[in-house]
Automatic annotation (TrEMBL):
This protein's UniProt keywords: Cell membrane, Membrane, Transmembrane, Transmembrane helix
Gene Ontology CC entries for this record: plasma membrane
Protein name per UniProt: Competence protein ComEC
GO-annotated biological processes: establishment of competence for transformation
């Protein structure tokens, strides 16, 4: 007979578990004193609750005991880590050689490529411990350390550094070389590694994206994951599928229990327990796997066996045991996600499912809806704090992807088990699981392409706490009858406003765009529109496949008749595979220098895999498309067999595009030598300039003056460590009258006919439409730039500049009587007391005398600072500009005033 009232849960161990966890967090992120204070405070609350009978006796006694125990245990561990000799040596940056035992498998750190450095996993992170119990974090080269296993003892030589905090590590060891004298791993680790390798090899029968996703879905092996899939799953709220969690264990153990339940509950439970242990060994005894094992067992007992009443005490006991065994788990984000998600499945999901059933929703549909909804809502604050974004499609994406997760996981586990002994059968199982994995890929891709699928949110503790408060207040107000209508109205109103803006009538791209610079981070990706709506020419692909793919999808580009790779550096070819996938590409154009070798090899392999031919344009060739014409300007020099970054940059393909928005000069990453070679072109002028090499300081002022752009587009990554763009280059462009726009501050940049520029801000505040300034090419006066203003305001910068450059001596510093007439351009008159000077105020004696005036004082100081920047032609200051002369230190004879840049100053 069904119960009329739902069972109540037993919360007696919850305060004790919360006190243990809070003590661990305080100690890990603050110091050992904070841990002791938190634990003692919890014990005091438990004592007061016991004396005044606030709670039940068991609850108060549990809190009274756990508080002091947590204070002593966590405080001692944190104190030991902070005062260990390795911490003292790490603070001094000493080098050392240590023999350690590895605690976890090597975890790759993926880095974006730049220059000749290819994108991918270059280093690995490994947690280890020494013989005296001290914990270390090893940062080691991936190619030499990625094959090691937990339990191995190795000797590592490197440099110590302070740890980042949040764990019990005493130091970070930066390892340069290979492991020294590695010992063999334990037998069970070798067994597990063989089965993981077997699954990886069997998955190779699938496409690259599916082949990397299946091992990640089954055992958390993300080594072969395509970066594009990772970005799409994160935006869609499916990132939890890429790590081992309690869901994996529940699926495996549940499948074993259902298959063997005819043997009886005890035998079936024993078999499920064996499967649980085997899965832990297969995935590896890392803290996240052990945590998932405990949480998965709790979820299996609570939901699978229907014993809701024991779920909360079991979860609280699991938290107590795990934090006592390893206090570092208290600061692990994965631990928090597991605990919160399991609590949501235990406390919220059954209640919500019953409410749906009472309203006529079928049982299976109700559970399928409430499980992803509850898990997504309660884990959203933690996910937002970690990723800096909130997925608005996660509930729907998890609901659609949920039905195929279990079959793919079970088939993948079976393939891993039999792969070492029967590879053919393992490949057959992988092929059967292939459609399910492909479905997951398509769900993540389609969900990530929804406009506004992910909303930016502050990272860290601030973002997590803020979203927690927002969610809690919203839920609380929805529970109150007086405010429920208001909250529903606000939510519906926001939905009605945001959906038309983001989905129904998206305001990007702007109608009539002709040139668009995609915000792809520290790299280049520029799109040139044709008269066909879905057809465009792409110049470079940026470092990140996900960024350029999102940009092209937003623009609706499905056909690319020509894909130009100006040169083969990683920040220009990193997104090639994403561009070729799902689009019709006519040809890939590359320059004459095929370096670096690895990049040239990858371009050939990927182009051949997609049936696209590779061509090499020559200087002087032209390509005509509807509404677009491309002219190849360079390089004209024969290639040199060098793979240095500067050489590769100078051999970039340089194109001039003739569009309906004007001429566009595409310069790749050409530096000083490449720009000097281009100065021989009869006409370099263009309305739009893609600034060379992300605005680096290696730019010739003469080249920028020859181009004389009205709009300068700088494709640069936010907070990059290369110092791009250089303030001196920006100052030169602005002094020439160009409107300078940067992707790191302005986001995607679109150029339209009529000198209109539309930019889509990164912060999602919408577009900003503006016009480029009027053409100032004929203006001759020197414009004081940002650098001169800084030098005028900061004496320190002025002294440094004086140490690097020779100044004309300022003579007669006291104020003089101003002249009534100052000669300017074409004026042959000269005052009688000016001697033979034709420059008006510059004398041909030892140095030059500059008259001080109250008006435009900063401009005069700037002229003095800029006088010796251009070494080829000396410069003298006049009242109308800067005049070039023949002799150093002499007044310019007949020189025409001309603007001089602030390039290389300071």
């Amino acid at each position: 007979m069904p119960r009329k009232h739902p069972q109540t849960h037993d919360y007696r161990l919850v305060p004790a578990a919360a006190a243990m966890w809070a003590t661990a967090v305080a100690g890990l992120f603050l110091n050992w004193q904070s841990a002791v204070a938190t634990g003692l405070a919890a014990g005091a609350v438990g004592f007061a609750a016991w004396r005044k009978a606030w709670w039940t006796r068991t609850c108060a006694i549990a809190l009274l005991i756990s508080g002091p125990v947590a204070a002593a245990w966590v405080g001692s561990n944190v104190l030991r880590a902070e005062t260990h000799p390795l911490r003292l040596a790490a603070n001094e940056g000493r080098g050392t050689t240590l023999t350690v035992e590895l605690d976890t498998r090597p975890k790759g750190i993926r880095a974006d490529g730049f220059g000749g450095q290819r994108a991918g996993v270059g280093h690995v992170i490994i947690k280890a411990s020494t013989d005296d119990g001290a914990r270390l974090v090893l940062l080691a080269p991936a190619d030499k350390w990625r094959d090691l296993l937990p339990g191995q003892r190795v000797t590592a030589k490197g440099t110590l550094a302070p740890p980042r905090g949040g764990d019990l590590a005493s130091a970070l060891l930066r390892v340069r070389g290979p492991p020294i004298d590695p010992r063999p791993p334990p037998p069970w680790q070798t067994w597990a590694d063989d089965h993981r390798d077997g699954l990886r090899q069997a998955s190779a029968v699938l496409d690259d994206e599916e082949a990397g996703l299946l091992p990640a879905l089954v055992v958390g092996d993300t080594e072969q994951m395509v970066p594009r899939i990772v970005d799409e799953f994160r935006a869609a709220g499916l990132a939890h599928l890429l790590a081992v969690s309690g869901a994996n264990l529940a699926i495996v153990c549940g499948a074993v229990y259902l298959l063997l339940r005819k043997l009886g509950p005890r035998k079936a439970a024993g078999a499920a327990l064996v499967a649980l242990v085997g899965f832990v060994l297969l995935a590896g005894p890392e803290p996240s796997v052990l945590r998932a094992a405990v949480m998965g067992a709790v979820a299996l007992l609570a939901l699978g066996l229907g014993r809701e009443r024991s779920a909360v005490p079991s979860l609280a006991a699991a938290v107590l045991v795990l934090v006592v065994v390893d206090p570092a788990l208290g600061g692990d984000p994965g631990f928090a996600l597991s605990v919160i998600a399991t609590a949501a499945l235990v406390l919220l999901a059954p209640r919500w499912a019953r409410a749906l059933k009472q309203r006529g929703v079928p049982n299976g549909v109700a559970e399928a809806v409430v499980v992803p909804t509850a898990a997504s809502l309660v884990t959203a604050p933690v996910v937002a704090g970690l990723s800096g974004q909130v997925s608005l499609v996660s509930v729907v994406a998890n609901l659609v992807a949920g039905p195929v997760v279990a079959p793919a996981t079970v088939l993948g586990v079976l393939a891993a088990v039999i792969a070492p002994w029967w590879p053919g059968a393992a490949e057959l199982l992988v092929r059967v699981a292939g459609p399910a994995v492909t479905w997951l890929v398509q769900v993540g891709r389609q969900a990530a392409t929804v406009p506004g699928a992910a909303v930016g949110w502050p990272k860290g503790w601030t973002g997590a706490v803020a979203l927690t408060v927002v969610v809690a207040v919203t839920v609380l107000l929805l529970r109150l009858k007086k405010t429920r209508t208001l909250i529903v109205a606000v939510l519906v109103g926001g939905f009605v406003v945001l959906v038309p803006l983001k989905v129904v009538a998206p305001d990007w791209p702007p109608a009539g765009w002709k040139v668009l610079s995609c915000d792809v981070g520290q790299g280049d990706a520029l799109v040139l529109a044709t008269d066909d709506a879905d057809r465009a020419v792409l110049v470079d692909t940026g470092p990140d496949p996900g960024a350029v793919d999102r940009c092209l999808k937003t623009l609706g580009i499905k056909k690319i008749p020509l894909l130009v790779l100006t040169h083969l550096h990683a920040d220009h070819v990193g997104g090639l595979d994403a561009v070729l996938t799902g689009r019709a590409v006519g040809a890939v154009a590359v320059g004459p220098l095929k370096e670096p070798e690895w990049a040239w090899r990858e371009v050939n392999v990927k182009a051949r895999a997609h049936g696209v031919r590779v061509i090499e344009p020559k200087a002087g060739e032209r390509y005509a498309l509807p509404g677009l014409e491309l002219e190849v300007l360079g390089p004209r020099r024969p290639p040199v067999a060098e793979d240095g970054n500067t050489t590769v940059n100078d051999y970039s393909l340089v194109l001039k595009a003739h569009t309906r928005a004007g001429r566009v000069l595409l310069t790749g990453d050409v530096e000083l030598a490449g720009q000097a070679a281009l100065l021989g072109e009869p006409d370099l002028s263009a309305e739009v300039l893609k600034v060379p090499h992300h605005g680096s300081r290696y730019s010739l002022p003469a080249f920028l003056e020859a181009v004389r752009p009205r709009v300068a587009l700088v494709s640069v990554g936010e907070g990059n460590r290369y110092g791009h763009p250089s303030p001196h280059v920006i100052d030169v462009l602005r002094s020439g009258g160009a409107l300078v726009l940067r992707t790191d501050k302005d986001g995607d940049l679109a150029v339209l006919p009529g000198n209109r520029i539309v930019r889509r801000r990164r912060d999602g505040l919408g577009q900003v439409v503006q016009r480029s300034p009027p053409d100032r090419r004929r203006q001759r006066g020197v414009r004081v730039g940002d650098v001169a203003a800084e030098l005028l305001g900061h004496a320190v910068a002025a002294r440094r500049a004086q140490a690097r450059f020779r100044f004309l001596h300022l003579r007669n510093g006291r104020r003089r009587r101003t002249r009534t007439h100052l000669p300017c351009d074409g004026d042959t008159r000269a005052p009688a007391h000016a001697g033979g000077d034709a420059g008006g105020g510059v004398r041909p004696r030892l140095g030059a005398r500059v008259r001080r005036r109250s008006a435009d004082r900063s401009a005069r100081l700037a002229r003095l600072l800029l006088q010796r920047v251009e070494a080829r032609k000396p410069v003298a200051a006049t009242d109308c500009g800067m005049a070039r002369g023949r002799g150093a230190g002499r007044a310019a004879r007949g020189g025409e005033p001309a603007p001089v840049s602030a390039h290389r100053l300071g």
